[in-house]
């Protein structure tokens, strides 16, 4: 998130979340927490949830999904639309005494994806498990009871940290890793209380998420906005970097830039040029990596999941390879870096059909990349970064 101005991506996320809150408060969406351990179980809704998981998690056996949903030890979060259709859900198992919750299944109906429901649902769950943990610690013989929530006021509570850190643990397949990372999950685990207590899934990647008691995740955008405003206020009180300078003259030298003083310039142009190239490439890498359409390109395509890929694509490329080449000082000019980015995207165009999500992500990322190159065209020309011969050291 850019602390100095609202980004288009953050604004879109905030708008999506506000619309979801509005739909919920208007009765167009419902939230339910259901477990077969409660005598008043809604069997029909759990069957609908099973159907959703079957559609979205096609590799999971139907009988296994059914057993997990109706397991007395498991709880199910369901989101329904105004026609009582289950559009999203999470099946999870609490381990209250060990301070963690296992995410067994998580899915959003295909027609409701890319609308913020996945993030909204996970934020809801993070706040709900705090309530569960709080009740477990303060109630003798605590037993979960089914809940139908008609107001988001339930999540406006503040909790004291009475049990230490809470964690989510899940096994994510390759297609879900990107989603879970956006929800705060990581692959480098620091928590080990789960070992020996959850099922090991072959081919899955174990991930954890630390849930902070002091953060209300259903209000995360308001929290970030307040942090941003406080940060900018402190910066403005100690510096003049926000001063806007007017200039009608062409910029040929650094000293032609309004606000730049001679003593601010390092005259070692060769080193400055190299630093500028490295900094600019790093900026472009971060822009690509942080774009919501970058998820197919973060890691190499798995030969196990897509065995025919490397029969078609003879020169594979992805953002992790590009990052590795950058740190190995491979990019002596901007052209080489641009060539690798184009190779990565062209590979996607070549292997995938136009109607696939992968192709659409590549198209969006290509347009974003080209727009950024145009935006920084003056900088590129000023430092002569686009030079096939590389930097002359």
Automatic annotation (TrEMBL):
GO terms for molecular function: histone H3 acetyltransferase activity. PANTHER family: GH11602P (PTHR45750), HISTONE ACETYLTRANSFERASE (PTHR45750:SF3). Residues 289-359 form the Bromo domain. It is found in: Nucleus. Keywords: Activator, Acyltransferase, Bromodomain, Chromatin regulator, Nucleus, Transcription, Transcription regulation, Transferase. The lineage of its organism: Eukaryota, Fungi, Fungi incertae sedis, Microsporidia, Nosematidae. PROSITE patterns: BROMODOMAIN_1, BROMODOMAIN_2, GNAT. Its EC number is 2.3.1.48. SUPFAM superfamilies: Acyl-CoA N-acyltransferases (Nat), Bromodomain. InterPro entries: Acyl_CoA_acyltransferase, Bromodomain, Bromodomain-like_sf, Bromodomain_CS, GCN5, GNAT_dom. GO terms for biological process: positive regulation of transcription by RNA polymerase II. Transmembrane segments: none annotated. Residues 31-212 form the N-acetyltransferase domain. It comes from Vairimorpha necatrix. Belongs to the acetyltransferase family. GCN5 subfamily. GO terms for cellular component: histone acetyltransferase complex; nucleus. This is histone acetyltransferase.
């Amino acid at each position: 998130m850019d602390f100095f101005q609202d980004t288009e991506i953050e604004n879109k996320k905030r708008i999506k979340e506000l619309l979801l809150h509005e739909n919920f408060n208007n009765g167009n969406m419902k939230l339910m927490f259901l477990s077969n351990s409660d005598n008043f179980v809604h069997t029909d809704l759990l069957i609908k949830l099973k159907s959703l998981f079957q559609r979205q998690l096609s590799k999971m056996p139907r009988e296994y999904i059914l057993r997990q949903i109706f397991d007395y030890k498991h709880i199910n979060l369901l989101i329904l639309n105004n026609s009582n259709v289950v559009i999203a859900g999470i099946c999870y198992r609490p381990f209250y005494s060990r301070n963690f919750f296992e995410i067994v299944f998580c899915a959003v109906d295909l027609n409701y994806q890319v609308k913020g429901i996945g993030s909204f649902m996970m934020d809801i769950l993070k706040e709900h498990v705090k309530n569960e943990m709080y009740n477990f610690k303060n109630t003798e013989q605590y037993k979960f009871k089914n809940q139908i929530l008609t107001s988001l006021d339930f999540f406006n509570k503040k909790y004291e940290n009475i049990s230490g850190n809470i964690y989510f643990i899940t096994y994510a397949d390759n297609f879900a890793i990107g989603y879970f990372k956006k929800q705060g999950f990581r692959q480098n685990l620091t928590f080990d209380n789960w070992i020996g207590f959850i099922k090991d899934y072959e081919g899955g990647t174990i991930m954890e998420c630390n849930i902070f008691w002091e953060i209300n995740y259903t209000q995360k955008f308001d929290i970030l906005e307040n942090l941003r405003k406080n940060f900018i206020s402190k910066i403005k009180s100690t510096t003049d970097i926000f001063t806007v300078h007017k200039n009608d003259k062409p910029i040929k030298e650094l000293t032609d830039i309004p606000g730049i003083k001679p003593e601010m310039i390092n005259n070692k142009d060769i080193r400055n040029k190299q630093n500028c190239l490295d900094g600019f490439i790093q900026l472009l890498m971060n822009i690509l990596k942080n774009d919501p359409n970058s998820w197919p390109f973060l890691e190499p395509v798995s030969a196990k999941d897509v065995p025919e890929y490397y029969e078609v694509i003879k020169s594979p490329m992805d953002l992790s390879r590009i990052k590795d080449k950058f740190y190995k000082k491979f990019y002596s000019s901007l052209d080489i870096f641009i060539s690798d980015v184009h190779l990565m995207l062209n590979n996607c165009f070549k292997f995938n059909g136009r109607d696939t999500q992968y192709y659409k992500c590549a198209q969006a990322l290509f347009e974003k990349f080209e727009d950024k190159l145009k935006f920084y065209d003056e900088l590129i020309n000023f430092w002569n970064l686009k030079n096939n011969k590389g930097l002359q050291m």
